[in-house]
Description:
heterodimer, A: 208 residues, mainly alpha, B: mainly alpha
Amino acid sequence: xxxxxxxxxxxxxxxxxxxxxxxxxxxxxxxxxxxxxxxxxxxxxxxxxxxxxxxxxxxxxxxxxxxxxxxxxxxxxxxxxxxxxxxxxxxxxxxxxxxxxxxxxxxxxxxxxxxxxxxxxxxxxxxxxxxxxxxxxxxxxxxxxxxxxxxxxxxxxxxxxxxxxxxxxxxxxxxxxxxxxxxxxxxxxxxxxxxxxxxxxxxxxxxx
Amino acid sequence: xxxxxxxxxxxxxxxxxxxxxxxxxxxxxxxxxxxxxxxxxxxxxxxxxxxxxxxxxxxxxxxxxxxxxxxxxxxxxxxxxxxxxxxxxxxxxxxxxxxxxxxxxxxxxxxxxxxxxxxxxxxxxxxxxxxxxxxxxxxxxxxxxxxxxxxxxxxxxxxxxxxxxxxxxxxxxxxxxxxxxxxxxxxxxxxxxxxxxxxxxxxxxxxxxxxxxxxxxxxxxxxxxxxxxxxxxxxxxxxxxxxxxxxxxxxxxxxxxxxxxxxxxxxxxxxxxxxxxxxxxxxxxxxxxxxxxxxxxxxxxxxxxxxxxxxxxxxxxxxxxxxxxxxxxxxxxxxxxxxxxxxxxxxxxxxxxxxxxxxxxxxxxxxxxxxxxxxxxxxxxxxxxxxxxxxxxxxxxxxxxxxxxxxxxxxxxxxxxxxxxxxxxxxxxxxxxxxxxxxxxxxxxxxxxxxxxxxxxxxxxxxxxxxxxxxxxxxxxxxxxxxxxxxxxxxxxxxxxxxxxxxxxxxxxxxxxxxxxxxxxxxxxxxxxxxxxxxxxxxxxxxxxxxxxxxxxxxxxxxxxxxxxxxxxxxxxxxxxxxxxxxxxxxxxxxxxxxxxxxxxxxxxxxxxxxx
Lengths: 208, 612
């Protein structure tokens, strides 16, 4: 196993710094595998939701509940954050640490805004619609699926924020690059999951 | 302390072995208690509640905390050596996987002393596992303990996948990999795609029980059959997670002691792949009697029977490997040879159960109990015994006693068949599973007595094995590098036990059974693929242990979050999720530390390598 130390990487960063070391390559590969497992995790949650989405137990139904403009705004924020994370990785490949940092900050801010809207949405349901975890099988499935996604977003925000701090302390090296690359993969994944949630939960709930 | 902070795959293997052995012992005692209760009709040795707890914990413990860790022990000890690697891809995660498994298992077993073990069966079928029918915290221990332990398994699976994909020695293409490495590779892939499903299932059940959600409660719109789907979409692949490593072990042991190449190597690889694939397609054969309808039953029936084809390929390949070979009946090979007919019998009853109409008769009888014990004990446990006796000298540098090994084999296998063969007939005569006693004069009496005597004999076999380990550990560690003399794969090219860096120089692989090929060419050792150089090693760390302690505390805190306590202080701490929060702070704090401080590891320099 070879470890290229931080100093060595500074002046001449390789073109794809995330794959420059065996450790980096392992990280990227294992993260792809991990996302395969995550896909099964969300697949099971989606299956559960689909099985229970009409079991409203005299509580509010999806059509009564959802407010599409709000969800559309949240979707826009999250999709935009995926784009900015692409810009961040492009900046990384061009070896521009400052630009990379700025794009990551924008990504985190957009993600936090998305999460804020989601928390607002949940609080409206709970306070004004009497739609809580215990209301019906539909409500349990809804909060679990969307909440799991929200928890993933929250985890991603904290993770990328820590990486921004690490970038400031250690600079862009072959050690930090794989971490940033992997976090961007994660961010895309939760974005893709959201596209499915938007379709299966919200659109299907309104019109299906 | 050395053991708590280690990240060396060989030491983690030994940790897995002791921890798995410990839980295996607990599960075995539970089995003996169950058999004592069933020794005669209307026995009052145990009450119904205790019996329910024992069968639940026996199944859960054996599968998740007994055999899986022993499989992981062998994988950890052998896989990096077999593929010519210095370590696994992620030594830190390897340690984390072990500690989360251990703390998950401890949490589950704490239930015995903290107000009642889980009592809903190892499948935890809803609504039996709901708070309505299972009011103690037993099932909470089940859901949260298994969740934590399952995390460790998933981490291990991803680690082995990455290790096998990226860290094979030069020349070791996929089609030159030893069968045990192939089995590990495919098993890990199954783990990766099966465990997240049970993760979700356990979360949903936890939410139902602790947060009052309605997933499985029909009165509020939930669906109990949903639990069965989620459980078995994981649970059936789990069967192959258990048996494929045993297939891998048998495929190593039989060629070694037949002095022949494994017959039909490539067909073995593809049979393994096919079994893994089909394993995901058949989950509903556990649910024929839930009312899925004839079309679904027919489809799952046929797909289940299909699995007999690749399995049959494997059985015949083992037989053809022995055919014309110079077979030596050492202890590992006895277990491997004993495995073949025993497992085949389990497979045959599997085909019988796969027939949906017949399953309506066999369902929930001792026929099913006999079938899965033939597969899991007669298949997997015999395979593990073969593997443990075979690789023991490599792991510990000491040969187990052959005489005692043969005693272990004969007592265990005779005891096994006595216990479970008669259960087929008990089942056909209508004895129900999961019921704590039975009425006299139904012709169940004698066969149950025989079964219990057999279980005792299996226990004797285990004790002989433990005695063997004990006296072996007192002997000097003087096993040869290649103690069976006919070793075929890379692990036999280095000293027993291996140095912490495994290979001084990464070997060059020139064919299937790399070491055997060199021996045939008249070489004593492998050709190295690199000059002697500085070897990078990962540093030991306490963080994996701390992270697991944190998860353990968080799990306990969450479990008791809705309880009322006698003491105000306890109530305050638990009801406000302070205990849960504290646990999570420990875990995430450790993750933060790991992320902030880069660990560059250390190096073993060439002078040091030559000095030894």
